[in-house]
Amino acid sequence: MNAEHKRQRVIFDRPLIERYNQAGPRYTSYPTAPHLHEGFGPEEFRREVARSHTEKPQRPLSLYVHIPFCDTVCYYCACNKVVTPDRSRAERYLQSLLREVALLGNLFGRERPVLQLHLGGGTPTYLDPDQLGRLQAALRDHFLLMEDDSGEYGIEIDPREMPNGAVQKLRQLGFNRISLGVQDLDETVQKAVNRIQPLELSQRVVEEARAAGFPSINLDMIYGLPFQSAQSFHKTLETVVRELDPDRLAIFNYAHLPQYFMPQRRINAEQLPSPAEKLRILETTIQFLTDAGYLYIGMDHFAKPDDELAVAQRQGVLHRNFQGYTTHGNCDLVGLGSSSISQIGHIYAQNIKEMEPYYQRVDAGELAIFRGLELTADDIIRREVIMHLICDFQLDRAAIEAQFGLTFAVYFQAEMVAIERMVGEGLLEEEGTLLRVSPAGRLLIRNICMVFDWYFTHAEQKKVFSRTI
């Protein structure tokens, strides 16, 4: 085992996991999205953008564009989406989206470089090549997009939506990162979740992406689906690594919450793996992928040692936002499209989720923001602590003291009881001012972060979270 693998190794401590396996946030933000409120609107957003321009005029941007449409429904899905085979609805959405691009482009100007662009959904490739081309042209007209591949421009794709040559067209539009939904290769599992996708289809798309010069290919997979077992998922992983050889893997834990997500009502709960089997699936997955040379980045993510995510984590510059782990934490995040979330300076702002109200607002020349949050001084301190833990697996308490002018043990006096317990149980290790997440604690990083989450322990929770493992 080389030094890097040793530093990022994971120990699967079943008794510890079973003791801590409770529901909790995924920390794509702090405070988390359920705490956004409707007392925050476009006026507050504009004020923060103006402040950002004044205080950090050269701060780069990260753009997220939400395309909500899907042709068919995948039963496991919990995304904000519109399932319809009527492709004309995409054109109506695109017209309003282009208006929003112009609105926000005028607000931010073309002086700040866009280091990151991500199209998510739904299914971004629901848009045809002409529509995607019009979207990219509008983004280039209103924002300062990079022309030399120095930006990280990604798109999520459904291989079932990609005819021959479509991947090459994405590359020509300026995309240089691609993420494929694969979920599982087992035909029985695919039928149970209404996602029929032969290996050969994913192979062709990956081969075309490599031939087109995409430097990074990510695969999304899910464990905990109907009919899965440790043995069957291990077989899928062997095939994925051997035949597709992705640079990154995101292997998500399926949370069965049919009371909140209507498509999940079509999944027979009796066909789901037991909690014990799900743990076995996770354990064999981590063992197999780390043996295969991937590094455990954290929170379901794995990457090859030379991938940008792994490099960023080694250098201590990995960040986490509403799209998950990112290498561009020094950006203001601008969300475009229904339900998208922006993070500008010390505020979060979310667009209207429903289509017609989104159309009405944007077509009237108004921002589509319907709720948000302005962070308090305490929020900012706790966000810094949580983001260091979840990205770096360690926290330098002296650095936090210097950054915010506080005494860590005094400021977090109430939290230190839980922290000391976690040190005693082996989740955390202390070395001087450093607080390190142990190999056994890495799978429980959400639980560790929850200790510092004021809202989780004090505020009313409006959302039922998935279990941490």
Q: What report would you give on this structure?
A:
The protein is α/β, with parallel strands linked by helices and 469 residues long. 41% of the residues lie in helices and 20% in strands. The chain folds into two domains: 1-31 and 376-462, Arc Repressor Mutant, subunit A, CATH 1.10.10.920; 33-334, Alpha-Beta Horseshoe (pyruvate-formate lyase- activating enzyme). It contains 18 helices and 20 strands. The strands form five sheets. Strands 1, 4, 5, 6, 7, 8, 9, 10, 11 and 14 form a ten-stranded mixed beta sheet that branches. It has a three-stranded antiparallel beta sheet with strand order 15-16-17. Strand 10 and strand 11 form a beta hairpin. The chain is globular and about 60 Å long. Mean pLDDT is 93; it is low at 1-7.
Write a brief caption for the model:
This protein is of the alpha/beta class.
Largest sheet: 10 strands, mixed
Outline the low-pLDDT stretches: 1-7
Q: Which fold name is given in CATH as the topology of the largest domain?
A: pyruvate-formate lyase- activating enzyme
Mean pLDDT: 93
What distinguishing features does this structure have?
single chain; 469 residues; alpha/beta; pyruvate-formate lyase- activating enzyme; 2 domains; ten-stranded mixed sheet; three-stranded antiparallel sheet; 18 helices; disordered N terminus
Task: Walk me through the topology.
Blueprint: H1 3-7, H2 14-20, H3 42-55, E1 61-67, E2 69-70, E3 82-83, H4 88-108, E4 113-121, H5 129-142, E5 144-145, E6 152-157, H6 166-172, E7 177-183, H7 187-192, H8 199-212, E8 216-223, H9 230-244, E9 248-253, H10 275-291, E10 295-298, E11 301-303, H11 308-315, E12 319-321, E13 324-326, E14 332-336, E15 341-344, E16 347-351, H12 355-363, E17 369-374, H13 377-392, E18 394-396, H14 397-404, H15 408-411, H16 413-425, E19 428-431, E20 434-437, H17 445-451, H18 454-458
Parallel strand pairs: 1-4, 1-14, 2-3, 4-5, 4-6, 6-7, 7-8, 8-9
Antiparallel strand pairs: 9-11, 10-11, 12-13, 15-16, 16-17, 18-20, 19-20
Helix pairs in contact: 4-5, 4-12, 9-10, 13-17
